[in-house]
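User: I'm writing a tutorial on reading structure tokens. Could you give me a worked example: one chain, its sequence, then its tokens, then a sentence or two explaining what the tokens reveal?
Assistant: Sure. Here is the example chain.
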Amino acid sequence: MKLNHIAAALSMSSFFCIPVFAQSVSGIVKNSAGQPVKNVKIAVGKSKQKVFTDENGRFELSNLSEGTFELHVTKSAYSHQNKTITVGQTDIMDLSLTLVSSSIEVIDVHATPLHSSNIESALPVNVIASDELRLKQASTLGETLKNEVGVHSSYYGPVSSSPIIRGLDGPRVLITQNGLDVGDASRVGPDHVVSSETATAQQIEVLRGPATLFYGSGAIGGVVNVVDNRVPNTLERSVNYMAKHNDVADENEVSVAADSYSGQLAFHVDAFWRDGNNYDIPGFAESVQAHDEHEEDHEEMHEGELDGHDDHEEEQGAKGILLNSAAKASGFTIGSSYILENGFVGFAYGQMSRTYGIPGHSHADEHEEHDEHEEQDEHAEESVEGDLTQDRIQLLSELNFDQSFINKVASKASYTDYQHQEIENGAVGTQFNNEMLEMRFDIHHKEYQGWKGAWTLHYKTSDFEAIGEEAFTPPSKTKSVALAWLEEKHFEQLLIQLGARIEKVELETQLTEEADIHSHESEALSHFSAEAFTPVSISAGVVWDYRAGYNLGISSSFSQRAPSATELFSNGPHIGTNTYELGAMYHVHGSGDDLHFDIGDSQVDLETAMNVDLTWRKFEGDLGFVISAFYNHIDDYYYQANTGEFSHAEHEEDEHEAHDEHEESVEEQGLPVYQYQQNDVKMYGLEAELVYQWGNGVSSTLFGDVIRAKLDDGSYLPRIPPMRIGGQLAYQGDSFGMQLSASHYFKQDKVAALETNTNGYTMVDANFNYYIDGIGDDLVIFAKANNITNEEARVHASFLKDVSPLPARGFELGIRGSF
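And here are its predicted structure tokens:
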């Protein structure tokens, strides 16, 4: 039934007219020294037609209809150029285009309805693509993006990490695939892996700051858009492949993506497979600080009964390995499109499965070092793991109309069937199911008095449920309908960007009215609760090209977000985070063994953010930089606060009867109770990246970012990433390239109540690429070394920082190429 709705919706935009083609445009592309530049891409703005310059810098575009077009001229290491041309009755000959060298890579952004590049946006944008993406690609999205300016990783072990944008994650950072919500449960808990795959992605885009105009209230903190070619939009033939191995987890990975066509039908297929064991770590999984806290608790509860536990090594478990961190994943996608003269219509089906351990739950009974496989066998009965499966259908179309006021309609729709199980000691503790249907129509109008713009109609439904004795969040159904309007206009050196969006969000949940927090047994019948919200977002931005190769971007926005069912009504032990979670709607009474809760009469408020962004860029010449400063004031911000209380749910006592005396003493304390609360928050920070080309293929990069997040009373928000600085020295030659990079994370001592400090650390990495000619279009043998100094490092933003350090020194060897 839902698929019929998708097909019917897309058919609304499937009408099109056939223009008459006759004219052609030819010319040459040179650099600032007057020399021809080869392999420059010349793309016609609203169509998918593109050509590349030859050895002499020449190009020719044929079969163009009459009208006005924008040519997009791009090449790596050169500044992006747009050229507007008007095609009439005669051909345009000898068009001359000049590209200026650029130290900042200029890449088109797909995440916004209106065409722009990463240097043409009032908001700062990170884009990684091509070789840079292959170099940074890791097994999770968070680890792939963790070194981007303004972006950190939640690091829920190396197997489940999500991006944190300017200190915000979870339901405030939307993860999309080709502009549509991935539809998983990664926004519900940090232990849930993002279902989008980076191995087969073409590029990944990060919109820092509120992107609610494009995607709604779930993007109040930013958007990560994974772009792939699962729905092909051009007629091309290519094959891309990669195989690699790393020794830090004894992990193997293979991926392949292929495109072809027959007549006007384009085809795409991709697949990946990854399998790894437990990760090596430099030392013990449990930090000394956490171990000492456990020792103190143990001594207090068993004073006079201890017979000597002085050796930290014995108490901190197995050395050199992160238990329960093995993972395997696989998936495939098939897609096809019909390429029209004025666009395309296509679909794709994708399937993915992941099984991964969740660190921090295994207990070492043998206080000695073991090899990797022995540890897996000995602790299999004490494991907690996630098992994810997802089926996803996407339908995309783009149609252009040159002779009408509505000159482009881009339609997107997806249906996602997602299941995630949390398995404890072989038994399913919680199962998360989510069915999501999303439809989006971007309707572009013809330029009017210099204004270009689009209206967006956006519809999304989510049927989410958590099943099981340890289900901490109630079943919920969420439906949103939105209308947005975006406009932009060039005033000589100024680009004005305006937008507004209004949504209607309906949330229905089934919840327990009153219960005993220790037994987790209901004392009253469950009932349904329905909430309705109307978030509004308004944004205004200016990009000022005040000098050739420089610009200044200023953006101001007012954004609102509707809370999720988890933030309002969560209630139960979350085995993935080792916490007991309570929603903001519950009132907690008593303390200790007399701790109870019930549904209160708290007012449900929208989060309201007022954000200002200032971005300064230099993108031409040997020196380039991007410097951004932001200030964000959020009223009624939802966050998880440690209440200082502990639960003693009955299931915990049964599960751990076999633990040794030390472990029993820890379990007696129970799970810490974290409750969602609301407060006004101020967040501000600075981000900077500077690149210099020294010549002869040598370049260097410096970067840094810092975030501060405070409640109204002056206290700090929990789990905010620390200040960071880093640098990179790179060489790129004809036959090989290499990079040496270092990042220093400062000590984080600006912490919330009941939150511990995290020590600083420095990570040093290196990579080497060797290019082989004559085998396909390109063939690269690559090698990487990570954490060269074998530093013990813990991520402050992670719930598992005290039991899950970053991986030890590791080496990676692989091959990639295309033909």
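What the tokens reveal: Residues 288-301 form the longest helix (14 residues). The chain has two domains: 2-99, 125-818.
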